[in-house]
Design brief:
- The protein has about 290 residues and is an alpha+beta fold.
- It is built from nine helices and eleven strands.
- It folds into three domains: about 90 residues, DnaJ domain (Helix Hairpins); about 70 residues, HSP40/DNAj peptide-binding domain; about 90 residues, Urease metallochaperone UreE, N-terminal domain (HSP40/DNAj peptide-binding domain, Sandwich), CATH 2.60.260.20.
- The radius of gyration is 26 Å and the shape is elongated.
- Keywords: Chaperone.
């Protein structure tokens, strides 16, 4: 559960009413994610920001349990319940709201134990495949990090927090996950983005090149005449979250011009230019 949910209207972000069904939410997300995907809007920071916002909104509203918690948080916050506002919340404040409703409504007066929080750091590959981590606490506690977890995600370990009073249940432990960036992969939800350089001859003549994925190498066919900035999609080679469909791998190529040309090589290029590119400028539209 994120502490800034009160400050964000995920329904407005996706453009759906609060009574929208899960299917309507997913449909709205797919449309907005497609329109604002960074690969389709290179260099557009506003589109990139919008894409992140709709992805976050979908991660909450597209999950029945998270959606219910989100609706509860906003209902309590909007009504001024108990005098709480969205400012200055701590993890324990949320614990007081959701875990001590017995006190508020008089259900026996038992108080659930305090909610604790800790942090773990894992690698990009560990986040993609899942891992079991021993927490750096006084007692040895293991937490299973599910495949596909993203940076900033929070895992709740029920009953691992502070002791409950007068026989009440123990509190919970919130584990916040920090994921280290990969040296060449970038992540967009469950999709991976990889930038790959091409030689001038590979782009001009076509080639078959080896591309790394998180688990293996695959061959990508580059058609002749491929322009710099072209993006190829390799299905199913993104991140595979637990119990869900795999993401895709998007390979964006850019051309590396030849350097340190010999005199002979320059003459061959000049001959090619004069024979095949004379009068054929790609910038003609700028003169219109």
């Amino acid at each position: 559960m994120s502490r800034d949910w009160l400050d964000k209207n995920f329904y407005a972000t996706l453009g759906v009413p609060q009574n929208a069904s899960i299917e309507e939410i997913k449909k709205a997300y797919k449309k907005l994610a497609r329109e604002n995907h960074p690969d389709l809007n290179p260099g557009d920071l506003e589109a990139e920001k919008k894409f992140k916002e709709v992805s976050e909104a979908h991660s909450v509203l597209g999950d029945e349990r998270k959606k219910q918690e989100y609706d509860q948080i906003r209902t309590m916050g909007a009504s001024g319940f108990g005098g709480f506002t969205s400012q200055g919340f701590t993890v324990d404040d949320f614990g007081d709201i959701f875990e001590n409703l017995g006190d508020i409504f008089g259900f026996g007066g038992r108080r659930k134990g305090q909610t604790y929080q800790t942090n773990i750091n894992i690698s990009f590959n560990e986040a993609a495949s899942g891992i079991e981590v021993v927490l750096p606490l006084e007692e040895s506690i293991k937490v299973k990090v599910p495949a596909g977890v993203d940076n900033g995600s929070v895992i709740r370990l029920r009953g691992r927090g502070g002791p409950g009073a007068a026989g009440a249940p123990d509190g919970d432990l919130l584990v916040q996950v920090s994921v280290e960036p990969h040296k060449f992969f970038k992540r967009s939800n469950m999709d991976l983005i990889l930038e790959v350089p091409l030689l001038f001859t590979e782009a001009a003549l076509g080639a078959s090149i080896k591309i790394p994925t998180l688990s293996k190498s695959v061959t990508l066919k580059i058609p002749s005449g491929t322009p710099s900035g072209k993006t190829f999609k390799i299905r199913g080679e993104g991140i595979t979250p637990q119990g869900r469909r795999s993401g895709d791998l998007y390979v964006k190529v850019f051309i590396i011009p030849p350097t340190n040309l010999s005199r002979s090589a320059k003459k061959h290029l000049e001959k090619f230019r004069d024979q095949f590119e004379s009068g054929d400028s790609p910038r003609k539209y700028l003169d219109e």
